[in-house]
TrEMBL record:
Family matches, as SMART domains: RAB, RAS
GO molecular function: GTP binding; GTPase activity
InterPro entries: P-loop_NTPase, Rab, Small_GTP-bd, Small_GTPase
Pfam families noted in UniProt: Ras (PF00071)
Keyword annotations of the record: GTP-binding, Nucleotide-binding
Name assigned to this protein: Rab11
Superkingdom field: Eukaryota
Length: 164
């Protein structure tokens, strides 16, 4: 989460989340030539089984989810199915999900084509990050997910106007 929300990407302490962690980030998004300032609430929920009851409560209100997969760990990829099922069970059918394959060490086990296929089969977005490109990709990841959520929100608002 720190690598996505902070400007300083030298943060190397990747301690596992215990329970839930939270940060705010305000970004500007341009959609159809109109600029929007959007305040994101970014919740980092623990992946450990013992915290699942806590994380379910936070998932219910989510409009966008970044699902991380360590490409150096096969079990991380296998858990994506479990997490995606939980997302589908807990969240609105309109929730936007982006799978992020991350690699901050050598020894890749999960190949890009496996992750792309998984994303396509589950109708979710996909990208990869690593230590070399995270600074340049961070904003693109957040922008892409936020634009997708914004577009959907604007379309829903337009549909509601037409019903009235």
């Amino acid at each position: 989460m720190f690598k996505i929300t902070q400007l300083d990407f030298k943060y190397k302490e990747d301690k596992p989340t215990v329970g839930v962690d939270f940060m705010l980030k305000t970004i500007q998004v341009v959609h159809q030539d109109k600029e929007y300032n959007i305040k994101l609430q970014i919740w980092d929920t623990a992946g450990q089984e013992r915290f699942q009851a806590i994380t379910t409560a936070y998932l219910r209100e989510a409009t966008g989810i970044l699902l991380f997969c360590n490409v150096n760990d096969q079990s991380s990829f296998e858990k994506c199915n479990v997490y995606l099922k939980k997302i589908k069970d807990c969240c609105s059918e309109n929730v936007k999900v982006m799978l992020i394959g991350n690699s901050f060490s050598s020894g890749r086990v999960v190949q890009t084509d496996e992750l792309v296929q998984f994303a396509e089969q589950n109708n979710i977005m996909y990208t990869e990050i690593n230590e070399q490109n995270i600074t340049e990709k961070r904003d693109a990841i957040v922008q892409r997910l936020t634009q997708s959520i914004l577009q959907q929100s604007l379309e829903e608002a337009q549909q509601e106007k037409q019903v009235e």
